[in-house]
Amino acid sequence: MMRVAAAGAIWICLNTLSPACWSATPTLPAAEPASRESLVLRVTLNTEDKGDIFAERTADNDFLFRAEDLRSMGFKNPSAGVQMVGRETFVSLRSIEGVRFAFNENDLTLHIDAEPQLLTSQTIVVQSQRTSPRLLTPTSTSLFFNYAIHSSNAGGTSSQPGFAGEAGWRWGNFLLLTDGSTVTHDLTGKRRFVRLMSSVTHDDRDQLRRTVLGDFFTPTRDLSSGVNLGGVSVSKLYGLNPAYIQFPMQSITGNVALPSELEVYVDGQRTRTERIKPGEFQVRDIFAYGGARDVQLVLRDPFGRVQRLSYSFYFSDQPLRQGLHEYSYNLGAFRHRYGSESSRYGGPAFSVFHRYGLTNDVTLGLRAEGTSDLFNAGPLATLVLGPSGIASVAAGRSSIAGRDGAAILLSYTYQSRRWGVGATVRRDWGQYATLANPILISNRKYEATATGSYQFGTRGTASVSHSLFRGRSAVASEPTAGQPFAIAAPEDRRSSTLSYSAPLVSGWAALTASVGHVKDRSLGSRNEVSLGLTIFLGGGYSATANHRRDGSTGSQSLQFVRQQPVGEGLGFVLTADRWSDGSGDTLRGKSTVQYNAPAAILRADLGRERDRHGRLWDDHRLSVAGGIGYAGGVTGFGRPITGSFGLVKVAGLAGVGVAVNGQRLGSTGADGTLFVPALTSYGTSEISIATETIPIEYTLDSISKRISPPLRSGSLIEFAATRLQAFTGRLAADLGEGLRALEYVELRLVTQARSERLQTGRGGEFYLEDLAPGTYEMETTIDGRACRLALAIPASNEALVELGQQVCRVAPDPRSEDRSKRSH
After folding, report:
1. Cα–Cα distance between 261 and 399 in angstroms, integer?
2. What's this model's pTM, rounded to 2 decimal places?
3. Do the domain assignments include residue 701?
4. Containing H/E element for 23?
5. How many helices (H) and strands (E) does the chain have?
6. Fewest CB atoms within 10 Å of the CB: 30, 140, 426, 471?
7. What confidence tens digit (pLDDT) does each residue in 235-251 have?
């Protein structure tokens, strides 16, 4: 029997060329103990074919496999029943708990069934965060300048023309940015230029970190507000990579006994299909927007059996994924009289916050702010309550000039596909002070808001809200020696609102309506009613009518709009308003017209108002704004640069249409370039060419490119074009007895780059493509003799150039020359 097994193993190796045959060689029976035999088995594991594998069969019909062979089959950690055979480690199949097997001696096949937990696990990633390899992320040097010139006339009085400007220089990962505008002096009424913000920004896209040196606004957090400082700021900004998801994503673990097809559904929408092997599996990075979502896994095995696994998760952008940080550290000096004076700075101030994803369900943080007189700090926390929503808490304690205060803010939100609720409660104690300019002391006692909404499918959405605010009595205050501060005015207010919005006529119209009741200390109680109807007329046109009643005051408004094109074109807003308060009516008409020209934006705001006493007031404003950008050695002039900009260059071709994200922006000019003033910084923009505008004799290397430019940067986006120019002619040979057309002969054309072979046709016709103007050598063979000519290619703009008849000269017959010499 052992001899037969060894012979069978050798025969299988020769006929199947199994890789296992190269890892070991069957030994002769005489070298093995009588209680075992060596076999080459065709192995299946949970119905999956694993190929031909060597095994040792024992006398009691157990099978020993090398540990590495079991791992290559898919076993996770085959460590039970270990035996040494020679110098190798073998594992007894029978010793592995959860394994069953059946051996067919006739065809030497072994069928193994293993529990899924014994097999290696596999991971399926649903939400990939990799950047597309085709995405361009330029870092070239660029410059830009924006300008705006405006003039106004209000109430018959004309003001001096105003000017605003902005300049930026991008060098690698650094951005130098400054802007300013003219303002009217309070006393003299004359205009003067005032610098607004100036800064140097460094963005590290790999670490998602931004550093700013200069002027900046600090971020707003719970229980604090943003301020304008001049100094240094370091922040973690996930927006530097919009594809990166910093919010918690969900994972599901399961196992299958057989090879299966896995489908992942989120709220009934299939997001991923994958073939999985037997064993454990993990579906990672499941992500969705908008609160509570249902996730379902559908598993189909080879026998058609279907298993459905359903889960409920809550998705939100408020918490951080486990292990991620979010922070902003800001230190500098207050900007005083921002917008009125260029460089007036006050005392030092700081503002910091840092959040950390402790787990996917718990995000903790700290925030602090202060000056030489103020200190305010407190903890932050965001909690995911399983599938039941998000809760947040923020607390703070402040001290300024011996006055202490505290505050706490609690909030809860839940959003499902159809309905959502939310609540926020804030309580302040003492004289709670926050960083502002001047520092602000809260007069709030408590504040609460509750909201709810329900979506009726295509029939609209209803929402309800209730809020209340209770203030404390005013307290006396005096500025401190270093920093002045102010105390918020007391206010008691309570309001309730019920609103409804719905699309009408298959989306061609929209209705909004709301009713509310407001009660406050200063104005008493009043009811509010609002009703609006918008009709979408197609082609970017729409008309809106609104009616509002607030206590004894009523207003009506009519508006006709043509949507402003992204590229060149005209847009406008025409508005007519009427106010009535019981003592008379006030009427106002206003029109705003804007034309996006290729090189500027022209805008006119024209208004006229008649008050309840019949007096007329005119208010007119005219402006022109544009931008200049430089990148990659190319300068472009166009509309103002609102984010990043691009210069699209199409190989010197004029009139080529260019679109950004599917919206036509314009056409290339005489130099083959188009200035694109609005690209999303760090976002992805697709620049595409309108192929119908490419001349027929040209072909492009690509018709679209995707770009993700840095903050306020310029990019040269080139599309290479190849001109397709053809040349035809007829080839003849001068044989000394007249010309003869060379039909169906092979030619050789020699250029600097290559040697090309071609064939003539009937009448000696030949065809060539893509040759620059110049002279080329052309050669063929007639009766064993070379026939050469110098082919002249003329400069021409025609797509097809006729070269006419070309004559090659036949070299003399060497045999005739030899006979001539002998005769002499």
Report:
1. 62
2. 0.79
3. yes
4. helix 20-23
5. 4, 61
6. 30
7. 999 999 888 889 998 88
